[in-house]
Amino acid sequence: xxxxxxxxxxxxxxxxxxxxxxxxxxxxxxxxxxxxxxxxxxxxxxxxxxxxxxxxxxxxxxxxxxxxxxxxxxxxxxxxxxxxxxxxxxxxxxxx
Length: 96
What we know:
Elements: H1 2-12, H2 22-31, H3 41-50, E1 54-59, H4 75-79, H5 81-87, E2 90-94
Antiparallel strand pairs: 1-2
């Protein structure tokens, strides 16, 4: 999936580089969309806890324990569900 992801992202967001290398695709993902930090589940859970939330939990895309928040994910409509599943992380926590 990683090679397919790199090829598909590179084809969609060319940056006049001429070669689809992982480093270029990753930097485009970060800087091209205004991100300033890339989280993994552990670091996002730590940040959520530091912000006062409790019980951070990794969830599936469109899954939520709060009915109003379930199935609101729409990024898959733009990039396709397979790429969305590969590049998206969903965490949920609650305020005590």
